[in-house]
């Protein structure tokens, strides 16, 4: 809950005692103890089973990620090899075309008189 006084905004919280209260309201303390009492530190077998299942999933996904990362690295290496081979083949084809008379530019024929 909020109040606006003199252009300022003040918030009032019923759960915690205000600084002006000489002592906390006992109902508020009971509410806090009932809330904090609902959280147990004792391991529940179902919670432990869920925790183990989640840990297994995380480990499996970590392994999958490692495998995928390795695959990406190997594909990058293969890609570099293929690019290099492509450049060599391209240069070879250019050299063959330059050496062949079929691909030479047509020279102007001499005019007959």
UniProtKB/TrEMBL annotation:
Name of the protein this chain belongs to: Short coiled-coil protein
Q: Quote the function comment for this protein.
A: Positive regulator of amino acid starvation-induced autophagy.
Q: Which family is this sequence assigned to?
A: Belongs to the SCOC family.
Q: Where is this region: Disordered?
A: 19-49
Organism, scientific name: Candidula unifasciata
Q: Which InterPro entries match?
A: SCOC
**The UniProt record lists the keyword tRNA processing:** no
Q: How does it sit in the membrane?
A: Peripheral membrane protein
- Pfam families membership: DUF2205
Q: Cellular location of this protein?
A: Cytoplasm, Cytosol; Golgi apparatus membrane; Golgi apparatus, trans-Golgi network
Bias (Polar residues) ranges: 29-41
A GO CC term assigned to this protein in UniProt? trans-Golgi network
Carries keyword Phosphoprotein? no
Top-level taxon of origin: Eukaryota
Q: What is its main location?
A: cytoplasm
| Keywords, sorted A to Z | Coiled coil, Cytoplasm, Golgi apparatus, Membrane
